[in-house]
Amino acid sequence: MKVLGLRLALLALLVAAWEIAGRTMNPLLGVPPSAVLPALRDLLLLRSYPDLPASLALTVREIATAYALAVAAGVGCGFMLGMHRLVGRVWGPMLAALYAVPAVVWYPSLMLFFGLDAASKIAFGFLLGFFPVALAVLAGIRQVNPQLVVVARAYGAGTVTVFRRVMLPAMMFTLVGGLRTGLALCVIGVIVGEILGSKAGMGALINHAYGLLRTGDYVALVLVTLILVVGSDVLASTVERRARRWTE
Fold this sequence. Notes:
Elements lengths: L1 H23 L8 H12 L7 H32 L1 H16 L6 H8 L3 H25 L3 H9 L4 H38 L5 H10 L3 H33 L1
């Protein structure tokens, strides 16, 4: 309860500072919360942007698709590299090196290849989410005690049983951390992709409002997008806590 009170006090302080700073700024560059609230009301009532529900639904679908592909490919790739040590030693450093490259440099090529539709946003979100998932699976498999696997096999456990009963609990913390990071990066990738070039989606609405210098609408759209980002992180945090209880 004390932590919640401190958080609310900090939020109130930040809003007050925003209000004071916003009143002194050029309204084309910054607006106070008192000017954002009417814009947010009109936005939620579908007055300023009637296509908000469709744009929000499109962005959520793109994020879900990109994340599903990133998890499937990342888990498969990480598992293959982790189970085959020679392959892992060859390709592991290359995977880490590609992860270190700023992903935004790949977006122009993705946009040229897939166009301005949803496919390029899904591909960009997938590209950002794939690497942390694959590297987390690889690191998780490597940290499993080999003696536990030997003992399990000595008692007649098959490959599936060894993975489910021995390897998965041992690598759960690392795996869940990678999945959470992958989800956050998928969200960022899709939204940034929409802002950089898109015909629809929340990023396209944000880019439209900013291009027309409708600063109040721009901030309101950013707040709605922020709720989407925070909601996805809360969902990932809930799954992480349940995974921790399961392993314990």
